[in-house]
UniProtKB/TrEMBL annotation, chain A:
The keyword Endoplasmic reticulum does not apply. This is Peptide ABC transporter permease. InterPro entries: BP-dependent_transpt_permease, MetI-like, MetI-like_sf, OppC_N. It comes from the Bacteria. One of its GO terms (cellular component) is plasma membrane. The chain crosses the membrane at residues 39-62, 107-133, 153-180, 268-293. Residues 105-294 form the ABC transmembrane type-1 domain. Its main location: membrane. It is a multi-pass membrane protein. Pfam families: BPD_transp_1, OppC_N.
From TrEMBL, chain B:
The lineage of its organism: Bacteria, Pseudomonadati, Pseudomonadota, Alphaproteobacteria, Hyphomicrobiales. It comes from the Bacteria. Pfam families: BPD_transp_1, BPD_transp_1_N. This is ABC transporter permease. Residues 94-291 form the ABC transmembrane type-1 domain. InterPro entries: BPD_transp_1_N, MetI-like, MetI-like_sf.
């Protein structure tokens, strides 16, 4: 790797240093992103999965809930007994596997995005408050983060889902209330870095309210690392939803969750390994794409932090 | 240093206390437990009887203090479902999870540390890149799916290992791989970065300049220093593994603490769930405390601040 040019997304002065080819921040971002293979692969695979989720009815003619008991567990097309009619086969109730996979992408993406919205709000609010005010506030918030880290996530999520009643909404809420720790840690350290910058002091000197300083001076300058955390936590949430659904306390049947598809296929996996292989590969691809995108974003938005 | 230890210990203790409140409230506030225990067909009189029998009619604070007082000497009451005390159940299942966690951590370190060293020595080379790719790829695979795939390959097709259970050491191989898998990237990255820092330092250059053999420099001088923070990370990872073993134990039908928790959750057996949450959280807090001490011993700047 060549040494990255010293520039900083955090300090506004950096934009002035890079004068020669004057480009808009968006153009610079796109140029850097285009040269980052991790970002490009992640973005491409993710775009394909998002498109599948959005245009599900156009991609498959089958309904993911339509059962056909006469056509149970038809293998995919690359098997001797497979056919193009159900090219990824059918499940134990004769439902088209490709249709369930495509509609299942909606569930994974919904869980990922909704969880990150909830946890991102909680974590960012706590982290910014700790980093900006410091002192006792910071100590109290650090304490809350420590308590959260000590709680075993899977166990708490399972117990809460069992008591409230497991459903899509429960999973989102429970995961959203649990996965904010990394947002808080990153928001805190990023806020501490900018809290003593001159432009914050200037904003304070001209009498801006704390709310205004936080929203229009601090937030834009700590957004980049938070977006990277958001991608990682999105992947984390998707994996956890799959695990919860697999254990029977996440998304409930007949919804086509990928984790649930693996759980339902488990009893048939000894004779038809594809039943768990297909949703497993889908899940791994989605998580891999999001992680690659996150890694790429980190390099693109903050090249000076590259190891 | 003593002051630092005492302060960290105080924090750890109060975090543990807060966790116990959270664990208690979580289960008591997320629904009417008496209704859950009595079942949907119970009459209001039966629900009331259950409420009194389990002490659920007392004020919440009293219930909590009763529970905490018991928990301090490992008396977590009786299980609702199993006809045993919670302490006996936990003691019976604990060794399986601990063994599993220890083997998983051992395997993870055995793979991650050498890989991190090799990656650092060949920085930018193909091994370094392959290791990084492996990290990103590996983290994307869901634990339970990895477990099922291992079963299909090594138990069903190759018939090398038993499918499930925890009777012999062979039963622990696949679950330990599935559980240890996720610790590898973090440990490897830390080893690699630690080694890169150390290898760039003056004393390594001196050691090489005075003609010491490369392996001696690498293992006696460099690795010894790079590995200390890894020990701290390993302690924390072990805590994560105990919490995460619930999924692995479910896949491989191992009767450890995680499996017990899963069963207890399904049966609304909340004394068991509470005890396991408190126990795992306490172990995690203890391990992070240990990690803090290791880091402070290593870096005096931490303990002064």
């Amino acid at each position: 790797m060549t040494a990255p040019a010293p520039s900083s997304a955090l300090a506004p002065a950096a934009a002035l240093e890079a004068v020669p080819p004057r480009r808009s921040p968006t153009a610079r971002f796109l140029r850097r992103a285009g040269r980052n293979p991790s970002f490009m692969i992640g973005a491409t695979v993710l775009a394909i999965i998002v498109a599948m989720a959005l245009f599900a009815p156009l991609i498959t003619a089958y309904d993911p809930y339509d059962q056909d008991i006469a056509r149970r567990l038809i293998p995919p097309v690359w098997h001797a007994k497979g056919s193009w009619e159900h090219w990824l086969g059918t499940d134990k109730l004769g439902r088209d596997y490709f249709a369930r996979l495509v509609y299942g992408a909606r569930i994974s993406l919904l869980i990922g995005i909704a969880t990150v919205v909830v946890s991102g709000l909680i974590g960012t609010a706590l982290g910014v408050a700790g980093g900006y005010f410091g002192g006792r506030v910071d100590m109290a918030i650090g304490y809350v983060v420590n308590v959260r880290l000590a709680l075993p996530v899977v166990l708490i999520a399972l117990a809460a889902a069992a008591l409230v009643g497991s459903s899509l909404e429960t999973v989102i809420l429970v995961l959203g209330l649990l996965l904010w720790d990394r947002f808080a840690v990153v928001a805190r350290s990023a806020t501490m870095q900018v809290a003593h910058a001159d432009y914050i002091a200037a904003a304070r000197a001209i009498g801006c309210s704390t709310r205004r300083i936080v929203l229009s001076e601090v937030m834009p300058n700590i957004l980049n690392p938070l977006i990277v955390v958001a991608t990682l936590e999105m992947a984390h949430a998707i994996l956890l939803e799959a695990a919860l659904s697999f254990l029977g306390l996440g998304v409930q049947p007949p919804l086509p969750s990928w984790g649930l598809m693996i759980a339902e296929g488990k009893q048939f996996m000894f004779f038809s390994a594809w039943v768990i292989a297909i949703p497993g590969v889908a899940l791994a691809s989605l998580v891999l794409a999001i992680n690659l995108l996150g890694d790429g974003l980190r390099d693109v938005t903050a090249p000076e932090n590259r190891s | 240093m003593l002051l630092y230890i005492l302060r960290r210990f105080g924090v750890a203790l109060s975090v543990a206390l807060t966790v116990s409140i959270v664990a208690f409230l979580l289960l008591h506030l997320s629904g009417d437990l008496a209704l859950a225990i009595a079942g949907p067909e119970a009459s209001p009189a039966q629900v009331e009887q259950v409420r009194i029998q389990y002490g659920l009619d007392k004020p919440l604070a009293v219930q909590y203090l009763d529970w905490l007082a018991g928990a301090l000497h490992f008396d977590f009451g009786r299980s609702f479902y199993f006809r045993e005390t919670v302490a006996a159940l936990v003691a019976e299942r604990m060794p399986v999870t601990m063994t599993l966690g220890a083997i998983a951590l051992g395997l993870a370190l055995l793979v991650a540390i050498p890989l991190g060293v090799v990656a650092a020595v060949n920085r930018g080379g193909w091994i370094d890149r392959a290791a990084l790719v492996f990290c990103v790829l590996g983290q994307a695979i869901p634990t339970f799916w990895l477990g099922l795939t291992l079963i299909l390959v090594f138990a069903v097709n190759l018939r090398w290992l038993p499918v499930s259970g925890n009777a012999t050491w062979a039963h622990f191989v696949m679950p330990a791989i599935a559980l240890g898998w996720y610790a590898v990237p973090a440990v490897m990255r830390l080893t690699r970065n630690g080694m890169l820092d150390v290898l760039a330092s003056d004393y390594i250059r001196t050691a090489r300049a005075k003609g010491l053999r490369w392996p001696t420099v690498l293992f006696k001088h460099a690795l010894r220093n790079a590995v200390v923070p890894v020990v701290a990370l390993a302690a924390v990872q072990f805590g994560f593994m105990l919490g995460g073993s619930i999924v692995v134990e479910a896949v491989f039908s191992m009767h450890g603490l995680g499996h017990l928790a899963w069963e207890a959750i399904g049966r609304k057996d909340f004394p068991v769930v509470q005890a396991i949450v408190l126990l795992l959280a306490s172990i995690y807090i203890g391990l992070t405390f240990l990690a803090d001490l290791i880091n402070a011993w290593l870096d005096p700047r931490i303990r002064v601040a």
